[in-house]
Design a protein that fits this description.
By secondary structure, the chain is mainly beta. The chain has strands at 2-9, 17-29, 32-44, 47-49, 52-59, 62-66, 71-84, 89-100, 105-112. Strands 1, 2, 3, 4, 5, 6, 7, 8 and 9 form a nine-stranded antiparallel β-sheet that branches. A hairpin with a 7-residue loop joins strand 1 and strand 2. The two termini are 20 Å apart. 8% of the residues are buried.
Length: 114
């Protein structure tokens, strides 16, 4: 999948960052696939922690899941953090809680900025 992030109000000084992420994902679920289109308003704030920075975030993805035989609207609550190691490398940890027609998830990854 892919995601496009727009920070409408950047994280500067004491102000937290506020934005929206537009997302499109395709999942293979057992014998059928699922295409998801969603928008996730979010808030985040970067803090210094020793020689590294941590950036917790909170988002509320809402969207539509398209199955071969039906379509459903979904929503969830996402909370997580980016752990910035260098200017170009961050680790991410995220937990999602089902609100309506979605999964409860735990995920992690690496983000490389070029």
């Amino acid at each position: 999948g892919t995601s496009l992030v727009f920070d409408a109000f950047p994280d500067v000084n004491e102000q937290p960052g506020i934005g929206i992420a537009a997302q499109i994902y395709y999942y293979k679920l057992r014998e059928k696939g699922q295409l998801e289109v969603s928008a996730a308003p979010y808030i985040h704030k970067r803090f210094k922690s020793g020689e590294h920075e941590i950036e917790p975030f909170f988002g509320i993805p809402v969207g539509w899941a398209f199955h071969p035989d039906h379509t459903k609207m979904f929503s969830s609550l996402q909370v997580g953090s980016l752990f910035h190691q260098t200017q170009n490398l961050s680790f991410v940890f995220e937990m999602g809680v089902n609100v309506s027609n979605y999964f409860t998830t735990v995920s992690g990854g690496v983000a490389y900025y070029h």
